[in-house]
Fold this sequence. Notes:
Layout: H1 21-33, E1 45-46, E2 52-56, H2 64-67, H3 75-86, E3 90-91, E4 103-104, E5 107-111, H4 124-139, E6 146-150, H5 152-161, E7 176-178, E8 184-188, H6 193-197, H7 203-219
Parallel strand pairs: 2-5, 2-6, 6-8
Antiparallel strand pairs: 1-5, 3-4, 7-8
Amino acid sequence: MTSAPVPLDTIDPPRDCPRCPRLVAAREALRRDNPTWWNAPVPAFGDPEAWLAIVGLAPGLHGANRTGRPFTGDHSGALLFATLGRFGLCTGTYANRANDDVALTGAMILNAVKCLPPLNKPTPEEIRTCRPFLDGEMAALPNLRVVVALGQIAHQSAVKVLGGRLPKAQFAHLAEHRMPDGRVLIDSYHPSRYNQNTGRLNEDMFDAVFARALELRQMS
């Protein structure tokens, strides 16, 4: 199985997606100030035959918005890719840049919001506007069985895409929700620098999420 920077390129938004005026303005300003950065909607990354989808919030300013690959370029990626490697979902050596030799096997990384939101806080309207892309990406994964949502916004978007109901699917770390079509959503705190530094999320807690995902795959 192979990884490609843009495995779902017919589904991901175009580079100059016009849907969210506030995000477009932020993107254009960053292109002027940092012309060598990616500064565009960040595509999905991983294995098109994935059984596992990992849904994040949105690109980080110095992370994916700079490098063009989810969870690459800032603090959160080190824990995520190391964890995926321990569970056989990632090969190569993560070097915090998009041109390293990292490849995913059996997994795909997606974002609830494809463009960088100012202060890392998308508005409810921006989340809704971007959801069709997440919906299309998940629909394009024929072997998808388990979804891991990193944080509450990712959880809410994943529940809606998978046909669940938010009042019945409350976010909590390691919470597990069976969706109407039989697929399972597992929640995790986001591996952000803040969550790691404050102890809200540690390596053992993150490992538990992916250990459970593998258990569910073996049971299906």
